[in-house]
Design goal:
It is a single chain. With about 90 residues, the chain is mainly alpha-helical. It has helices at about 5-10, 15-35, 35-50, 55-75. Helix 3 (about 35-50) runs antiparallel to helix 4 (about 55-75). The longest helix is centred in the N-terminal third of the chain and has 21 residues, at about 15-35. The radius of gyration is 20 Å and the shape is rod-shaped.
C-alpha cells in the first residue's frame, strides 16, 4: 500500500490492531485446547472419574470420543493460515 493509502487507513489503525490481538488470543486458545499433553491429561482424569463411579460407561465413551477427536487434531501437522490460527 502506498503512502496515500497508509494515510487514508490511519484512522482504522486501532481496529486493525484490535483484530490482530483477537487473532493472537484465538490462536493461543486453540493451541492450548488441542495440545496433546493437555488432552492426554484430560483422558487420564476421565478414566479416574469412570473408575471412581462418577460417570457411567456411556458418558465415558462420549467424552472419550470428544477427547480423542481433539487429540487427533492436535497431532496433525500445524499449518499457519492468514489469520494466525492453526488447523
Amino acid at each position: 500500500m502506498g503512502l496515500i493509502g497508509e494515510v487514508l487507513m490511519l484512522p482504522f489503525a486501532p481496529v486493525r490492531g484490535s483484530l490482530w490481538a483477537v487473532n493472537q488470543v484465538v490462536a493461543e486458545a486453540e493451541r492450548q485446547y488441542y495440545d496433546p499433553a493437555a488432552v492426554r491429561a484430560e483422558l487420564a482424569q476421565l478414566e479416574k472419574r469412570l473408575e471412581a463411579g462418577e460417570i457411567d460407561d456411556e458418558e465415558f465413551d462420549r467424552l472419550e470420543d470428544e477427547l480423542l477427536d481433539r487429540l487427533e487434531i492436535g497431532l496433525r501437522p500445524r499449518v499457519g493460515t492468514d489469520n494466525g490460527t492453526i488447523r
